[in-house]
Amino acid sequence: MTAIPTSTSVSESAVISAPLSQVWHLIKLQSFHRFWSAIKTAEYVKEPSTSPETDIVKWTFKDGTVLEVKLEEHSAIDHFITYSVIDANPAISYSSVVSTIRCYEVTTGEKEGSTFVTWSGHFSSDADAGVIEDARFKRQEALADLAATVTKK
User: Fold this and answer.
1) CB 67, CB 87: distance < 8 Å
2) Quick one: which H or E segment has residue 143?
3) Whole-model pTM?
4) How many CB atoms lie within 10 A of CB 122?
5) I need a surface site. Which of 47, 104, 135, 137 has the fewest CB within 10 A?
6) How confident is the model at residue 50 (pLDDT cuts 50, 70, 90)?
7) 3-state class of 23 per DSSP?
8) pLDDT at residue 2 tops 70
């Protein structure tokens, strides 16, 4: 059976009715469980204080999946993080994925004072259409959860 050709990238976005400072405060690997309802716990595997060049966080999902994610890049000035999955249980069906979450302040128009958030993922070429669609739905769900979390405050 031949695999269906597919893009190996996904990008989802949302305008969240909360100021950038409120949204950005949650965009840390160790804080994802505070907004993403699919994650039960998020805890450091390697803390920045013991290894400043390497932040590794273990996400335990409510369905039992465990991912170890490594912070690849962080900018408090440009409001983005980039992370990669370095371990998974059960094992994932593709070689790698690098994801970036970016937050932008909406400065004019009807949504002024809100935050525009993008969440992209770039998968290795062995990721199939099912992986990409699953990633799309998970990002949509997480962005909706993020919006619900910050608008409750």
Assistant:
1) yes
2) helix 129-152
3) 0.91
4) 17
5) 137
6) low
7) helix
8) no
